[in-house]
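dumping this here before i forget
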Amino acid sequence: MRVPILAAVLSVFCVSPLMAEDSGPHLLPISTVIYAEIDHPGDLIRGLRDDPAVPALVEQLKQIPAIGKALEEDGSVKAREALGIIEAQLGREWEDVLTALVENGITFGFDPLSQGAVLILHAESEESLNEIVDGLLELATADAESKGKKAPFQESEYRDARVFRGDKFAFGIAADRLVLTNKSELGRRVIDAIFETPTESLAVRPNFKQAREERSEDSIGWLYVDLATIRSASPDEKLLQGKADDPGGEIILGGVLEGLSKAPYLTADVTPGRRSVSASFSIPLDRSRISEERVHYFGPDGEGQAAAPIHVPGNILTISTYRDLALMLQRAGDLFSESANDGLAKAETGLSTLFGGRSFSEDILGAFSPQLQLVVAQQSYDRLDTKPSIKLPAFALVAEMRDPEATRGAFRRNFMNAVGFFNIVGAMKGNPQLELDFEDIDDGELISTRIVTPADRKDQEVVPLTYNYAPAMGFNDRLMVISSTGELARQILGQVSEDAKAEAKPEGGAKANTIVQFSTDGIFELLLANREHLIAQNMLKEGHTRVEAETEIDSGIEIIKLFDKGRLELSTSDDTLDLDISVSWDRIRTAE
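structure:
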């Protein structure tokens, strides 16, 4: 099934944070596979106009070099002039025109039988809709005539609707609705449904009715995708076959792919906050019937649950997840291709040698519980006499040992052996040496390293990336931390407590399978610290002048600075697989 470009473009514009009134599904054919709706867009537009954060955001965006420059370019100036002409023609500001067109809702649908996409705008009134369309058509016709071209649209009638056909799409005015489509057949079907309630429509499809009943009351936008129909029409589509190509893809998306390969449909809700927006995606999934191949991802009976995310000062990113990596590798033959399994076999041989002949998949990975965390944070370079030219964040892997008494000593020895090995290899290449330090922390211990900089290199201009890393390993009760720096390992071990080790508990009996949290504060500081390097790389790769490079890099930094933090959570309930994403922008300045 091929989706036309116009359908894809319209779908992007239509999956927005609102919902249409309930008549939308009755207007679309029963074969519709993608449906999105927007309810009371006029209220949203008025709310945005009254929100003091919106003009404040506009002013902040104008201060960003690249955006300010773009607004001064000829194309932007002409666009503003055209907008002014439209406002003069209609006698209304563009915000009022947009509000009048979409006051009572927006509906979008894609129908695979006709290969058509349709966008339905429910205006404030039939009179207002005709006035706006007539005004815009008058401008378009005058512009075409001035260029010696024919009128862009030819008007005709269908039932009681005014229909306009152009070269690439058509639209019609039926009562107080504006219908735009790339397929006349689909447009006629929608107009028929506006004037006469059809006996068959998307609204009567059982899966659609079930999905609509489960829609969140707080959401302002809703999307429905008929996965079952799309799968049957596209049996070779990899995304819907339920298999990942490699271990990396399996770790990240394995469970999601299983859900997409079996679920009858997917839904999405969008909910705005005062300074935030969240999107929730959901597919039906009975977690008690998870396949054996995906127990590593969801846990027995789908009850696997991630630990509460660890947060340290300067936190940039924390990923907390449930993944039984040892079990995944044991089932590699069922999950991956022959070539991927050949690669895993080679890696197993090499890693087993590194760990003294012990099986990496069974003895090493099997020593840890499925609850894993990755922590990324800013780092301080006060410990170093020589600071790296490019500054990178510190990162740490946090895992829980199944039997700490049996495995703690072995991991400690392996770490110290690895440091010794890297010192030998580093000495052969002229790299600085690492010196081991040992310390007790609360109920645990920390084995850290320090970079020993040779006296003749302390004043070198270009300091290599290796100075960002001083590996460390720490233990606290059952937890083991492997970190790129002792500072981060120390922070994690000091912060860990019973509530940090406790399982994350979303509301409603859901199980949080994966939690991702990020903060832009650390990203902003990191980019600022590497600004000169980024500018130099931009000049080298893009051929920009220094001023052009500064504009591009500083603009990116300022855009990131507008946002505050974000969160992604993949969770399972008794009968659904849910993905929730939220982003906040608390740093937008207002006059409040």
